[in-house]
């Protein structure tokens, strides 16, 4: 069909060249124009076109985009206020859209508004700023005359100024979690103190609490026997009186040694069901305050130094326990002992006063004191009587010097055997069933005074720690009966 052009003849493939390459009577059949869509908005640039039988990547058939470099500009696009462009390709000059401007009062130009606003068709008047220039339109400026006071400003605590517009000036609060009025120096700032924080005026010290989780530990605290340095002086339990601590006093030339028991709790009565009905029921007893109890039974040497005579039957050693003394004579001894020690006329409860222990105090001591120290045994300090007590089978039917056998857990000697020991209480065979649970002092009346601890001439059953007996208070003929002291701290 064109013998002058070798590219045109029947059977040749058609290419886009405005000729009938295959001589079929049609020019460039199958080819279409495609326009570049550089911004990907679906509309092409009419100035850049290719002709292909298939759509090339990045090209579209539409050629009506008036700005192929901006995806927000194409025929029919929504007009954007203030961008200076003909977003919808309408042919208008400049920005055809009339912009509405929200203006917020910001006199101090800190980009926070008071919340007062109006809408403008152009620009904002002096003292107002467009919304898009603000850091926030929901956090309001509480002082629009000072650019350093706004919701974004750091708060300076305790200056009386609300810099961050929270409605209050932040206050310094010191941590005192344990409520002992001493802080460990950790602070926070708030209008209202968080739980566990207090004002400086409410504290004894703003710093220095080593353990703010324990109210017993702070500078100047009372030292307790708890394995802690309560008063923070670098020493543990140094000034406290602890269970087992000893006190020694010399009165009229002789030494009296005592052991301390703190306030605490124990189970009073027969724990082993040994058939001592008067020691039932087993029941809890609590002591509200601590006391001292004699490390040894009162000796003949001590009695002689106070009373001027020795009533005992067994006199082989002045360090044998005194015996053949009545309950009433013991109280005469106590009066004279307190007088010699500068506490004449004192009564139980007075500091430093010597007295006869109650039955509960005696049993608490015999059982080893608090549960942390005590071990449940039938005899004081041992499951067997021989290591701790002089009784029928090892005593030779006589008393022995105090302190020769093993002590119990508290360091008390002869709580089992040697001589029985008077205590303060009247005897009541059923008293344990009605005993007060705190500081029991025995029945209010009776015929006998309680004796405890067994003796040298009795067998092991009568020497059981919980065995209870009674003797009339004016009887002084028993060479198997003595006593042990108690003392107020």
Give helix % range. under 10%
Helix count, per DSSP? 3
Task: Give the N-terminus to C-terminus distance in angstroms.
Answer: 136 Å
Query: What is the string of SSEs from the N terminus onward?
Result: EEEEEEEEEEEEEEHHEHEEEEE
SS class: mainly beta
Beta percentage is: 15-25%
Which blocks of ≥5 consecutive residues have pLDDT under 50?
none
Brief account:
The protein has 489 residues and is mostly beta strands.
Q: Overview of this structure, please?
A:
The chain is mostly beta strands and 489 residues long. The protein has helices at 300-307, 327-340, 359-366; strands at residues 32-36, 49-52, 59-60, 101-105, 117-120, 128-130, 171-175, 187-190, 197-198, 246-251, 254-261, 264-268, 283-287, 291-294, 354-355, 420-426, 449-452, 468-471, 481-483, 486-487. The strands form six sheets. It has a five-stranded antiparallel β-sheet. β10 (246-251) and β11 (254-261) form a beta hairpin. The N and C termini lie far apart (136 Å). The relative contact order is 0.08.
Provide the fold topology.
Blueprint lengths: L31 E5 L12 E4 L6 E2 L40 E5 L11 E4 L7 E3 L40 E5 L11 E4 L6 E2 L47 E6 L2 E8 L2 E5 L14 E5 L3 E4 L5 H8 L19 H14 L13 E2 L3 H8 L53 E7 L22 E4 L15 E4 L9 E3 L2 E2 L2
Parallel strand pairs: 16-19
Antiparallel strand pairs: 1-2, 1-3, 4-5, 4-6, 7-8, 7-9, 10-11, 11-14, 12-13, 14-20, 15-20, 16-17, 17-18
